[in-house]
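$ run holo --ligand "pyridoxal-5'-phosphate" --emit tokens
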Amino acid sequence: MSAESLAKSASTAYDAMLDVIAAVEPRVAQATRQELTDQRSSLKLIASENYASPAVLLTMGTWFSDKYAEGTVGHRFYAGCQNVDTVEALAAEHARELFGAPYAYAQPHSGIDANLVAFWSILAHRVETPTLERLGAKNVNELSEADWEQLRHEFGNQRLLGMSLDSGGHLTHGFRPNISGKMFHQQQYGTDPETGLLDYDVVAAKAREFRPLVLVAGYSAYPRRVNFAKMREIADEVGATLMVDMAHFAGLVAGKVFTGDEDPVPFAHITTTTTHKSLRGPRGGLVLAQEEFAADVDRGCPMVLGGPLSHVMAAKAVALAEARQPSFQAYAQDIADNAKALAEGFLTRDAKLVTGGTDNHIVLLDVTSFGLTGRQAESALLDAGVVTNRNSVPHDPNGAWYTSGVRLGTPALTTRGFGRDEFDKVAELIVDVLANTTPNNTSAGAPSKATYTLADGVADRVKAQSAELLDKHPLYPGLVLS
Ligand code: PLP
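-- output --
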């Protein structure tokens, strides 16, 4: 089918869908329409977002949503799961092939769920199994109350070492208020205060001192590549299990931009990811594992999960099939090339970047040189139709709420077809907004961290120039709603 006739079919499908929804709750249909209009007319630079294909989106809107399927493929606690088995097995097969992983688990509903499955699989493999053996029990059902007490004791206080939030790690990498920081005795490694870069010697020294059970690598806001061979060496030296959370950069791994030591899958015992960021699939999670951990991960349900989202697993299968196409490799390379162009666009305009640039899909702009907090920058940019999110910079003086940075990512606009020149123009527009934004004063006369004034005319000027770029690269070309 040609791209044109596919777009025509998608238009028909969405028109029909909106009619059916509107017959029950027109306000939902209206908001759904409006969301498309808004996404089409703004510069989406949120590093964790993308635009999934109509095939992926349509796959999520089916009767698979109605089916319960606790268990695993071929081993369900509900009857009538043969079609769910088909789509889950397909999602896992595509994931194994795409990432070269011995085992894949497609059930996690989100990235956080995938990480929970990974944590509990590691605890089950490394703590529960030896404890059961010592207690002479085959499984937990054979434990007495006193044995349970012993098991709980041995589970508690296990150690996890992950990247700190303000250096770019994720909440689930041991951040104290998150379950990962509560269920584990945690410590964090950061980035070098001068360069903003990961220092593997510092990670190794911390690991030697702390001797974690789990070493977590991966990030949400670190604009550089990670050497996973080195992380595995560190894990092996201290007897830790290496878990890599590649939620952000899975698309760059799938697209073979990150290869060799930068591909986490061969080095990590367990790799987790979301499917909706650079991988461009439905909202969801995925766990990949070496054989040694496969049986433990396979117990994600009942360990931490209930019924899988069958409609989303079906959409994961479609998205992963798309990512196996050669065109996805070109897309992934464009993501990285465009991020470089965006970073260069800022540097030539004297803006400050954490680590001085990027070699992945993220650019972390330090907005203190504009005299702004991240919160003011994020809001002023939104006024001008540029959608970003504020983000801490390492050792952030403004804390996690106001922050000093804005995180930008290239996956979404690259999907629309933006190239290097257009990303340079995006840098120009962002600098135009920030250079024309000033913090308001508080009633006490100090600069506010929240309120600001964007000079007259700037928002309109930037929106007009963005519109030219966006019109050149329409979102879902050919998709027309009546
Ligand atoms: N891991 C990383 C590295 C992330 O950046 C995120 C989301 O931002 C997650 C996990 C959590 O993903 P989700 O929002 O799907 O739970």
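-- notes --
The mean pLDDT is 96.
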